[in-house]
């Protein structure tokens, strides 16, 4: 009978492990699709909007020419982006063999059409439009997160994550068929609502099923690998598909993958159930007043703000200075994406051993110095090393700060995770909301080089604050429970009364 009970117990544990792996896979796929849609537009939108504006200007100029010269004549329209020369208008009285003298302005454009434009007011103006469109998703997500976090505490994680899938699918279809700035802006904003549901509910679900601190860090590292893979695949996938197939194709492929994720959620999570948390979690405002949670959130925000500022401005800077082709605008982000994937997988486990505070501190410094090196690139190959450093360092920050958010709640508050991961997502979104909107304006006003200098210095100066996460104080009774359930690998716990508890150091400490 004892053997029979033992076998049943082992079977239940195996089933629980399998169920946790399925949940981890669902969150992985959800974050993958969210971030593919987030980044697939990076190389598409600047070029697409520029071409829309150029076409509108060409039609307007053609109309003016017809009004001024009813007989009509051939006029040269030079694309500053791909340096092609187009002829507009038709003169029925002019023989094809007769040369048509271009206007003085046209002659100047034709002389410069073989060179990449070193300075173009139109290109600079695109910074603000593209920055605002990119920032709209993160801004809406920022506003939605405070409602999604407490909602997961009341109804569970299954319904919000499935709602996120539905909204993301609708947003993807809108991106595929939108042909105006207003509709693209609406699609990007709608994505923010779906992303908020998916990321907050997904991370909270992982934190609730992986209760051991080391296992949780490993699981969140794998989930962030989905985010990294989406960031990795998105820009090159978008640029290549856009250049060789068209704007609609990449979004239709993403919509098909989203349907697969939705079917998986229906099968495994059964999102028709409402499963509230068994205990009432700490309020969102109480968590927001916790200085240690704020430091961790700040590291996430400023670390990701660096790449967020680069997304709308780097392609335009490349078009100005490198005469980059469409496919190169997305491929330039490839080193950052690959290194982020490597960083999150390595430091998901390693950060627990070396000290998450130290991992984040080093990551912030490396982000700062890497960003400072970006403007020195003379061609696309010169961007490889700085972008690799940016991605790897952000992977260090995210893979150490995301798990420490859950640990700080365990240590200092009630172990309900929806609200704390809403704060983490708010921090992430603040980086991606302020980054493109402010970055686009700064790049237009004082230049791309100064923009990179500013965010690099901010990251370097923020890094020392991670020292405070080395040994965060906690409630003595919670420290004892954590010590019995899942003793940390390194560090020493400190109670709120200043008393030392246990001989084991905390997870943020350095060995």
UniProtKB/TrEMBL annotation:
Keywords: Cytoplasmic vesicle, Glycoprotein, Membrane, Neurotransmitter transport, Synapse, Transmembrane, Transmembrane helix, Transport. It catalyses: serotonin(in) + 2 H(+)(out) = serotonin(out) + 2 H(+)(in); dopamine(in) + 2 H(+)(out) = dopamine(out) + 2 H(+)(in). It is found in: Cytoplasmic vesicle, Secretory vesicle, Synaptic vesicle membrane. Its main location: membrane. The chain crosses the membrane at residues 22-45, 161-184, 217-237, 249-269, 290-309, 329-350, 357-377, 383-408, 420-442, 448-469. One of its GO terms (cellular component) is synaptic vesicle membrane. The keyword Repressor does not apply. Signal peptide: none annotated. CDD domains: MFS_SLC18A1_2_VAT1_2. It is a multi-pass membrane protein. GO terms for biological process: aminergic neurotransmitter loading into synaptic vesicle. It holds the Pfam family MFS_1. One of its GO terms (molecular function) is xenobiotic transmembrane transporter activity. Residues 23-474 form the Major facilitator superfamily (MFS) profile domain. It comes from the Eukaryota. Belongs to the major facilitator superfamily. Vesicular transporter family. This is Solute carrier family 18 member A2. The gene is SLC18A2.
């Amino acid at each position: 009978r004892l053997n029979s009970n033992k076998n049943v117990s082992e079977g239940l544990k195996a089933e629980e492990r399998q169920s946790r792996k399925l949940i981890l896979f669902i969150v992985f796929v959800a974050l993958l699709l969210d971030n593919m849609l987030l980044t697939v537009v990076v190389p598409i939108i600047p070029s697409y909007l520029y071409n829309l504006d150029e076409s509108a200007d060409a039609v307007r100029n053609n109309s003016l020419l017809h009004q001024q010269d009813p007989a009509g004549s051939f006029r040269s329209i030079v694309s500053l982006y791909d340096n092609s020369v187009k002829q507009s208008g038709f003169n029925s009285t002019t023989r094809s063999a007769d040369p048509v003298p271009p206007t003085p302005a046209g002659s100047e454009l034709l002389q410069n059409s073989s060179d990449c434009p070193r300075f173009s007011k139109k290109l600079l103006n695109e910074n603000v439009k593209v920055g605002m469109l990119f920032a709209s998703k993160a801004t809406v997500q920022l506003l939605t997160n405070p409602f999604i976090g407490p909602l997961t505490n009341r109804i569970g994680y299954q319904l919000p994550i499935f709602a996120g899938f539905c909204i993301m699918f609708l947003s993807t279809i809108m991106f595929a068929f939108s042909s105006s700035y207003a509709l693209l802006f609406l699609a990007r904003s709608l994505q923010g609502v779906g992303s908020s549901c998916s990321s907050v509910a997904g991370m909270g679900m992982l934190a609730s099923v992986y209760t051991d601190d080391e296992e949780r860090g490993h699981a969140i590292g794998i989930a962030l690998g989905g985010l990294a893979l989406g960031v990795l695949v998105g820009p090159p996938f978008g640029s290549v598909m856009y250049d060789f197939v068209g704007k609609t194709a990449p979004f239709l492929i993403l919509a098909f993958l989203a349907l697969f994720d939705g079917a998986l959620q229906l099968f495994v999570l059964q999102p028709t159930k409402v499963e509230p948390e068994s205990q009432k979690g700490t309020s969102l405002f109480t968590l927001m007043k916790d200085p240690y949670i704020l430091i961790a959130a700040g590291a996430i925000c400023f670390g990701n703000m660096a790449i967020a500022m680069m997304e709308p401005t780097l392609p335009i800077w490349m078009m100005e200075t490198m005469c980059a082709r469409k496919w190169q605008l997305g491929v330039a982000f490839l080193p950052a994406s690959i290194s982020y994937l490597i960083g999150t997988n390595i430091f998901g486990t390693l950060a627990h051993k070396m000290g998450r505070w130290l991992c984040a501190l080093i990551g912030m410094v490396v982000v700062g110095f890497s960003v400072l090196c970006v403007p020195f690139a003379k061609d696309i190959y010169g961007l490889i090393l700085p972008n690799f450093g940016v991605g790897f360092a952000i992977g260090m920050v995210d893979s150490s700060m995301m798990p420490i958010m859950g640990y700080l709640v365990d240590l200092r508050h009630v172990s309900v995770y929806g609200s704390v991961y809403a704060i983490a997502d708010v921090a992430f979104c603040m980086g991606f909301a302020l980054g493109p909107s402010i970055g686009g304006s700064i790049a237009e006003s004082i230049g791309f080089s100064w923009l990179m200098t500013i965010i690099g210095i901010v990251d370097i100066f923020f890094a020392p604050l991670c020292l405070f996460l080395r040994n965060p104080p906690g409630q003595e009774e919670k420290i004892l429970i954590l010590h019995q359930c899942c003793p940390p690998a390194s560090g020493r716990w400190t109670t709120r009364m200043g008393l030392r508890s246990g001989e084991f150091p905390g997870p943020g400490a350095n060995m």
